[in-house]
Write the structure tokens for this entry.
Amino acid sequence: MLKAAKKNLIERTRYPLTDSHGRTRSTRELLRRFVPYFRPYLPVLIFDLFCAALTTICELALPVIVRYVTNLAQYNLSALTVSVIVRIGLLYLVLRIIDTAGAYFMANIGHVMGARIETDMRRELFAHLQTLSFRYYANAKVGQLMARITSDLFDVTEFAHHCPEEFFIAGVKIAVSFVILLSVNVPLTLVTFAVLPIMLLCCYKFNRRMRETFKESRWQVGEINAQVEDSLLGIRVVKSFAQEETEQQKFDEGNRRWLALKKLNYFWMGGFQATTRGFDGLMNLVVLVCGSLFLLRGAIVPGDFVAYLLYVQTLLTSIRRIVEFAEQFQRGMTGIDRFLEIMDEQPDITDSPHAIPCEHVRGEIDFDDVSFSYEDDAGEVLGHINLHVDAGQNIAIVGPSGGGKTTLCNLIPRFYDVTSGSVRLDGTDVRDLQLHSLRSHIGVVQQDNYLFSGTVLHNIEYGRPGASREDIIRAAKLAGAHEFISALPNGYDTFIGERGVKLSGGQKQRISIARVFLKDPPVLILDEATSALDNESERIVQQSLDTLARGRTVFTIAHRLTTIRGADRILVLTADGIAEQGTHDELIAKGGIYKELYSMYSDMR
Ligand SMILES: Nc1ncnc2c1ncn2[C@@H]1O[C@H](COP(=O)(O)OP(=O)(O)OP(=O)(O)O)[C@@H](O)[C@H]1O
């Protein structure tokens, strides 16, 4: 019946319950890996549990007092004087004050501890994301990553705070109630507790289902994030193609899928809660009927029976709290699982143990028998490339689209590592150089450079964080950007909008070039840096690039072949490797692929 109901509830899409390596993590593993995050806050945790213990003792005291008063009233009424009642009242008042203070500290410091753990995990996750390579990001969805770093970790906070407390309180209450119940009446206790194992088994089964559906709905939240991000970042394309409705439909579909998953989730949760409530009622029924029979036979006195009923309620309340906590527990487990999924991704581009910093870089580059493929099972993009570039040489790379020009250049700053062979900078394999040091000696200007949401100043400063305003202005002047920046409403302090949306293509490109001027690297990669610009902007940006290129080793990838005519050497890269190389005049004279490309380009203009 459950299966049929489940089928009716959702047209299901399977979501990856395993990580990218096909691994699943058991609850035990998740807890084992989460516990160390409590370590820095051990004193706080101990104090939190101490407060939990105090509140538990205060709660457990009531049935004892009721039992004492009832038995006194039945068997020794003369001893129940006003002063005894006042003392009992005062004792209970003190207990309640302690309970209130304990509850306050639990709610306050406990939550702060949870938030601190969330902060630590978020910092660790962000730091780890920074270490992951292009290869990882080529397959990842930013929206999914955002969901993990925000909402998933929020669930972990709640879990971090409530989990130890809830289990501690419930554990103590269940154990103490059990012992007290045994001390009151052994046969009745054994009958009552016979229901418990069946109840626990049901809880376990439901819990597994809940965890699966939680993970699926979390994944779907990530998908919605990714879709929103995609639609909003591409809002110009959406509007220019009048595709608002299509985007809305895509969003609605994702949203509906989330609802369906949530329904399934609550289906299991509802079943779980109803079942435990049913067992709860069953236990009460057993106590009521069996206890009344015991009373009838004189096997239990009324005071003990009342205390017994109260302790059974305490016990059931604890079980109910654990049940209610199950949802939070599963959400926390899902958050930890999704956190670990990323933390377990090993960065594939790292410093080797013997890596050295780059010193006095001249900019000589060698490709020694370099082959490269993006995936193990995919074909080679580059095969057996050999190339020597002297320091300060200006190399242009041309060739058919998809021939591997960008890929070749990406191997120099180790955005990817070679599959075989080696790339060397001043004679040292780039894999033997410290990654940070290597990349700080290489500047890259692409067709579409990312500008951060912030001021012009902040964006140029990215080239050398901490640079003085004077240095930033000097870099902007060299990039031919100073004039238009000065004309902006707030000059260098103008906010340029997300991804520089308030600037023209040429202006954005000149800010990116200023950034590289500030960085001042000896090796430069210009990857179709002017391709997206109109003729006038191209002319201005090209001037900036020519200034930037002076005295550096430069790799220029260009489709506009006029821009590379003056290069020291032109490489024609095809799927078969470097097909031709030489100066513009040599290659034209040769009458090969370059001449063909050049004629085609000249005809198009
Ligand atoms: N991240 C990636 N993962 C898998 N394959 C990729 C990746 N990036 C590029 N490729 C593939 O590698 C090949 C070479 O791409 P690359 O971008 O280096 O070519 P290109 O010569 O620079 O092309 P274009 O002139 O069009 O920019 C292409 O077939 C491309 O599909």
Remarks:
- The domain at 450-520 is CATH 3.40.50.300 (Rossmann fold).
